[in-house]
Design goal:
Radius of gyration: 20 Å
Helix content: 10-25%
Largest sheet: 7 strands, mixed
Distance between the termini: 12 Å
Structural class: alpha/beta
Shape: globular
Strand content: 25-35%
Number of strands: 17
Length: about 325
């Protein structure tokens, strides 16, 4: 049996449940959860903001732990291995996307908390391909957010060939953005942080920003017009997209990873004039996850976290909803 915390209706409180996961699939592993990050996407699923939540719902998709059980076909892992699991828990392994290494774009991909139970639990299951080994040197208590927030902002660096010579902006210094700053700094880029509050200015510079721009000050935005090669937006709210497109250099790209619910309103000439691009991406494939983790271990990159015991999950959610988190919450398993 698996012990977990589940929500039973939109915007409800999480309560402890017990459920039988059934027989372990031949290609699956069972992970004994050590800790699990709390992501804004968990909040969106709890509240059914995207319309695909099924209740009871056990959230949690920034999972770290150790292999507890192996399916009969799993040969590359062993019991006791430290692994992580993010937004995806399975993919078909036979489509063109999977065969091409883009498992995260599989049309039949299985999402860890969509139609199944996630990591606010003492155990969780996934297809073995998506249980990514943790390299030595990463702190298991802090590593969970790398499996969603981390790879979400790392993946575009790989997909769009961001180069060390480029000037890159990051919109939003939160759970995703604070990791993007660290990645881009170690990638070799000149990094500009956009934040709506000067209170985060010093923290942004400590995490790798060379410049900090107050996004609510039009004069500061005008000063950087035409200067950035790539801007990654990590926020989940609508912004003045014209102002950010104007900050792009010719052939620059505005890339969206924050799940903004409102449609993006972008004039065609804002793209045409400078040959600008507008794009988005999900989290990364297993190979990208491995590359990111190795990069983190090499450069000592880790999330800045606040920890709560899993039994205080409702308190942690309230802390997230209040916008007080610096910069990611991690729930430590105390479901014994």
């Amino acid at each position: 049996m698996i012990q977990a915390y589940a929500v039973h209706k939109p915007k409800g409180r999480l309560k402890r449940i017990e459920f039988d996961p059934g027989a372990l699939g031949a290609d699956q592993v069972e992970i004994a959860v050590s800790a699990c990050g709390l992501c804004h996407s968990d909040l969106s699923m709890i509240n059914n903001e995207w319309g695909d939540s099924e209740y009871p719902l056990v959230p949690g998709h920034e999972i770290v732990g150790t292999i507890a059980k192996l399916g009969a076909n799993v040969k590359h892992l062993k019991v006791g291995d430290a692994v992580g699991l993010g937004w995806f828990s399975g993919s078909c392994m036979t489509c063109d996307q999977c065969l091409g290494g883009n498992h995260n774009l599989c049309a039949d991909g299985e999402q860890t908390i969509v139609g199944r139970h996630g990591g606010f639990a003492d155990k969780v299951r996934c297809e073995a391909t998506w249980a990514t080994p943790l390299p030595a040197g990463l702190d298991m208590k802090k590593a969970g957010p790398l499996f969603c927030a981390g790879v979400t902002v790392f993946n575009p660096l790989v997909q769009f060939d961001v180069r060390p010579t480029q000037r890159v902006g990051v919109i939003g210094i939160g759970g995703l953005g604070h990791l993007a700053l660290q990645f881009l700094n170690k990638w070799g880029c000149e990094v500009t942080a956009f934040t709506s509050t000067d209170a985060k200015r010093d923290a942004a510079k400590q995490m790798g920003a060379h410049h900090v721009v107050n996004s609510r000050d039009p004069s500061q935005l005008k000063k950087i017009a035409g200067s950035l090669d790539f801007i990654i937006s990590t926020v989940a709210v609508a912004l003045d997209w014209d102002a950010y497109l104007a900050a792009l250099a010719p052939k620059g790209r505005l890339h969206i990873v924050g799940a903004v619910l409102a449609p993006l309103s972008v004039p065609a000439f804002a793209l045409i004039g400078g040959q600008h691009s507008l794009s988005g991406s999900p989290t990364g494939a297993p190979a990208t996850l491995r590359t990111m983790l190795d990069f983190c271990a090499r450069h000592r990159i880790e999330p800045v976290v606040e920890t709560f015991p899993m039994s205080r999950v409702n308190e942690a959610i309230a802390h997230l909803e209040a916008g007080k988190v610096r910069y990611r919450i991690v729930l430590e398993n105390d479901l014994g």
